[in-house]
Give the backbone structure.
Amino acid sequence: MNCTQEFQRTNYSFRMLTYAMDDDAGSWWWWINIIGTLCFGLIGLIGNLICFLVVCRFALPQHSFVQYLRALAIFDCLTLLFECSQSLNNLLVYLFSLNILNFRSTIICKIYEYFNHVFVLLACWTIVGLTFDRLILLCDPWAKQWPNLSRKICNLQCAKRIIYFLILLSLIINIPHLIYQQWICRKSGYRYSAAFSGKFDINETQKSNSTDYLTCQCRISPSHEHFTVLLFVQWKIYVFHLLCYTLLPAVILIASNAAILQVLHAPRQIVGQQNEHLRSKLTRTLTSVSLMFLILYFPHAIVETLSLILVPSFNLRCSIRSLIIIRVLKRLSELLNIAALGINFFIYILGVNHYRSAAIQMLGLHHFDMFLPYLTVEHRNSIGSLALHTNSNQRRNTQPDGSSIRLLKMVNNGSPSSSGYKSRLSR
């Protein structure tokens, strides 16, 4: 359906039609998304880097959750790097017509989109692995069937195997991005969009000799057959977004966190090592990480999935109002996604005393009196012993100088001269 008659009947402006069917750059929700992504993304990058360094330097490596935290910091950092690069590129294109992500090559475009989706999926499923690890360790749901299951799963080697398996699985799932995507360019404006022309599988042109501004992006190649295009679209909607990105992680996280919270708030009748895990603040903090991720991350996943399902029907009906609502929800929910990727620093670095103290010591903030109350006794003692050791080394370095001065004074005052000593030897 061509929407020209519908647009002539309604009173929507050219700008609103462009926001709905082509590009919403310049709208108020676009500005909120760009500024928020750059600010939150930069804070998240710094925070995840500090988290990774603290966990690597001060954590006990034999625990399984340490491996998940390291992997989570890396995947969140890489995902934020992609998101910040895309937002910075959109801002530079809008203000200065400078495209820093103008790949000009289908191969580079394929690789960029492929690894972007790989890291997005890994950031999600690493949280799932961490939550499932806590579930097995605390609840031990299969203790009667397999008594030593928690020891076999919740250890260093098994955590590494699970992370490697998630990496391999994500690389396999995102292979269609390498096969079917292509660098496509067309003229800017809603009249040249696929939604306006009714051609939902391709854009107007791949290459254009016109001097007009071109809109370029990675998308499904128009050289493929209609069945192939439809297959890729169905895979992206139902396999990647709906199943792997939304439903499966949501179900596992909700069920696991519900079981963990039930155990945490139940009367403690267990003694031994498991009771220590229940009482530890670390377990509560890791559960908070999972819950905050669930709250902040999945609105974006749900909106993204719904947009992929509903936007084609909105385009067919030329429903401009519905398209704009979807765009606003996508832009705002993306900010929640960025917050979910960068909030871990404030939860388990600032929430757990040991990691907060380790971060203060690593950043050198312990030299300021205002941060000393936040140090643990262990770190205070290590800092005190280090200062004592440094002072003793300084005394040792300065002591030979004083002794040599005293020896020189003794030689000059009471000892025989070197010439007299030589004369006595000659006799």
